[in-house]
Amino acid sequence: MRKVVVKKQREAMSAYGLDLLIAISPENFAYGTGFVVPSQPLMRWRHAICAVNAAGTSGIVAVDMEETTVRGKLPHSDIRIWGEFTEDPMATLAQLISDLGCETGKVGIELSYLPTSDFQKLHALLPKADFIAADKIFDDLRQIKTPEETELLHRLSRISDNAIGASFDAVTPGMTEMDIASALTRSVYEQGAQDFKLMIVATGPRSELPNVGPTKRILEEGDICRVEIFSVINGYHAGVCRTASVGDPPKKASEIWANLVECKYRVLDAIKPGASAKRVYESFIEKFSELRLPPISFVGHGIGLHLHEDPYLGKYDDYELKEGMVLGIEPLVYQSGYGFGLQLKDMVAVTNNGTKLLSDITNTDDLYRIS
Amino acid sequence: MRKVVVKKQREAMSAYGLDLLIAISPENFAYGTGFVVPSQPLMRWRHAICAVNAAGTSGIVAVDMEETTVRGKLPHSDIRIWGEFTEDPMATLAQLISDLGCETGKVGIELSYLPTSDFQKLHALLPKADFIAADKIFDDLRQIKTPEETELLHRLSRISDNAIGASFDAVTPGMTEMDIASALTRSVYEQGAQDFKLMIVATGPRSELPNVGPTKRILEEGDICRVEIFSVINGYHAGVCRTASVGDPPKKASEIWANLVECKYRVLDAIKPGASAKRVYESFIEKFSELRLPPISFVGHGIGLHLHEDPYLGKYDDYELKEGMVLGIEPLVYQSGYGFGLQLKDMVAVTNNGTKLLSDITNTDDLYRIS
């Protein structure tokens, strides 16, 4: 268990009057323990659970086929193993809750993750426990990263940023989106990522499509190439997007890009502790609206154990920005009306007096050039 | 909507006395529609829902940012869009349920997927509806693939199988696991897969580790190389695993491999409509136990819209095997005690009189040879 996270969880329990706090989603399990149980995100029924009581005593529930992994990562923890085909994880969890002294207590648990049928079983096993939605507690705690989390997100940001640059450098006109993808994924692993998510390789007219992978499309002079990838280590993500032109870019692409770059600097300037996330968005949209294209509803969001997490820098909810937040900032235009899309996504940490760029490898002031 | 699936769903509704059947997990949404909403598996709150009533009338609920994708795929469907930051998908779903005439009806829904807090909202909006767990209905329907599903799984099996062969052919001693991974992922995309899951590249002593990605480890003479990958199209998966030796394999590896190959043929011979899945497993374990290693608890499982689905060929539950099932068959040894692991995973369809091998590219009678 991660001591600093347990401490934050205990403070939250005290504030909300909880006796126990239970993480059951892959991201909050990883938040408490520092690692992802490999099959938990792939097979939802293979529950891995991490509980901490108000005194700071903790316990873990894990499925038998992940026992060696979990014991290896948490050698000194109270680990309860349930058999995949022979036992119910809710029975194991109910026993843990009782052993932690909370069978009649106020138990915070992720009700926006816990499936209904599991909750029904748990409630039947512990009818006197008062189960309360703790989703917002985790969301709020995770908004402020520890220095170690920020350092990992910096490392991941550089992996993504480096990998995209390497993929652009590896190709010339006549090669294909596959060649970009191949260099990209290789670089991500070579730099030590455990995995990646959401690889987007969208070139030429395909650059208008939001979430598409690579095809055999051949790169031609004048193409716009949108490439994004999220590198992953221990459940943490950093997504970076870069846009390149093959040879000289279309004039209109350079004009739109200049707007997106100005948006980026405007957003970076506006972010600081105490700033309103909504007002940062409004400052962005003022510049962005010069493009006379459909506005996007947010220009950034928290990032860490999930691709998107609080806070959002958008037109709806507001949040106060705070030191320790890590944000993905992404001014973008999918359908420009000129046959190409452009996107500039960076990773940024909120510092005591402003921001620190985490995806700090590529100079994005001009479109990257493939030649 | 896929007509043949709607027909199967209506038959199931009739058998269970349901007025409505609601798919809410990514896999069952894909089952009803034939495609995956890109962000649904990545961001659980971006619900995409597919409902069919007893008369066969259907409706779709989708998040605003996926509207163009969903309307493009289902141009003639009743599609209800909810706004990500401004609306609650359960309100949109409740309206759809009412419009389909089921607000006081018996409504089957995936309670093992639907989060507790969403169910609480839905129940409050439609207090007179009788919500019933429909998870088993979907699991049972999906056990028997349509000819189109089997054809797609055949295509995916060949993509995975071909890609692993290509990755072994691309490397020589002195190259690294990264070189295997690079050729592997490239081939998967080049053959038309949209995505892949669970890439395992485990060579030398690392071949003992269950779920590990590639590293910079250099291939040496005598290494055993375990490589697995699941190719993905429209939410369907096909996982294939092959094991190679760099140059001559250790004698013990050839002996264990011969056992695994015999297990494979034994399992293929035993599978036919009407056979007991448990007895197929028992036949396997009889041969496998000659290895005097810890037994594995299942040798196969259904596969399709999920990496693992019913039926399992294992020691616990039993299932009657039926024509139309598609199975992953995987005799394997992780920790052999000799410093290497071996795995042979094939994709198989149950036909009217036996089986058809779907991963039918590589000859696995001997260990694949990297030289």
Structure characterization notes:
- Two copies of one chain form a homodimer.
- Chain A is α+β, with helices and mostly antiparallel strands and 371 residues long.
- Chain A folds into two domains: 140 residues, Creatinase/prolidase N-terminal domain (Creatine Amidinohydrolase, Chain A, domain 1), CATH 3.40.350.10; 224 residues, Alpha-Beta Complex (Creatine Amidinohydrolase).
- Helix content of chain A is 35%, strand content 23%.
- The first copy, chain A, has ten helices and 17 strands.
- In chain A, the strands form four sheets. Chain A has a six-stranded mixed sheet, with helices on both faces. Chain A has a five-stranded antiparallel sheet with strand order 11-10-12-15-16, sandwiched between helices.
- In chain A, helix 4 crosses helix 5, helix 7 packs antiparallel against helix 8 and helix 9 runs antiparallel to helix 10.
- The longest helix of chain A is centred in the middle third of the chain and has 23 residues.
- In chain A, 51% of the residues are buried.
Largest interface, Cβ cutoff 8 Å: A-B, 46 and 47 residues
Low-confidence stretches of chain A: none
Distance between the termini of chain A: 49 Å
Q: What assembly state would you assign to the polypeptide chains in this entry?
A: homodimer
Instruction: Give helix and strand order of chain A, one letter per element, not per position.
Output: HEHEEHEHEHEHHHEEEHHEEEEEEEE
Portion of residues within helices of chain A? 25-40%
Number of helices of chain A: 10
Label the CATH architecture of the largest domain in chain A.
Alpha-Beta Complex
Q: What name goes with the CATH superfamily of the largest domain in chain A? A: Creatinase/methionine aminopeptidase superfamily
Q: What structural class should be given to the helix and strand makeup of chain A?
A: alpha+beta
Tell me, what is the CATH class of the largest domain in chain A? Alpha Beta
Main sheet: strands, sense, barrel of chain A:
6 strands, mixed
Give me the Rg of chain A, rounded.
Answer: 23 Å
| Shape by Cα distribution of chain A | elongated
Strand order of the largest sheet of chain A: 4-3-2-1-5-6
